[in-house]
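EI: anyone free to look at a 285-residue chain?
SC: sure, send it
EI:
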Amino acid sequence: MSKITESDIEQYTIEELKTLGFQFLHGPDIAPDGEFPERQAYSDIVLVGRLRAAIQRLNPNIPAGAREQALREVQRINSPELLTNNESFHHFLTDGVPVTYRSPLPLGEVGRGSDEKSDYVWLIDFNNPLNNEFLMVNQYTVIENNQNKRPDILLFVNGIPLVLIELKNPADENATIKKAFDQIQTYKATIPSLFTFNAFCVISDGHECKAGSTSAGYNRFMAWKLANGKKEVSKFVPELEILIQGMLNPITLLDLVRNFIVFEKSISTKPSPLHPSPSGRGNAG
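SC: here you go
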């Protein structure tokens, strides 16, 4: 009997996510030098074309110039502090991106300037989760400060990489779930721009599977309890399957992003860890 490999776990994860409605793309195919490029440079984190299309679709009453202004604001987040960037983007995501623009004068009215209007541009439709685009990309190379890294799987909503999934080989006794967590810490140090947009991370070795917020320490990563939101599943069902079905389905995923990530105010600002309660719901605390 052949041993399970990390590639097997990755393929299993991809197939499970497909059942939830995620489209799959291979990272090298949409790379700047790929067959179907969607990024101008390997330093690009967001899939800008997809986000622009979503902004246009979700904000039809906002002038095109203001929609582009919102897109630029998202791309402009650039504090030296990773968690400050993460909080800034989370506010944009959950509260909307504030924009101002000149409203046109009523038909036939002349002689005065147009009125300046303030509004918000939405990046995600939280009220109708299925009105968003859900995409998973594997082997998505990011280059920042001459550091080249390639996370296993990223989950994008409207072109925004909200979830990072890092996998390890269960057949390798040295490739533990803790090693997957350690790999994410390496990503934070070397490609921090990725985490401007991150809501939470998932780590698994094919047997164990846990999730935690961007700032969570290893002891704050928790398993997800429920696959269907109603009852605890059998202990014989793999933790990876439970978490994917219970936590990463579009409705629960967006509920977690909007309602269960809280930023604590202390000496430094940081998002409090996302942890699943016994009921399977994510609680930030």
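EI: The mean pLDDT is 89.
SC: 👍
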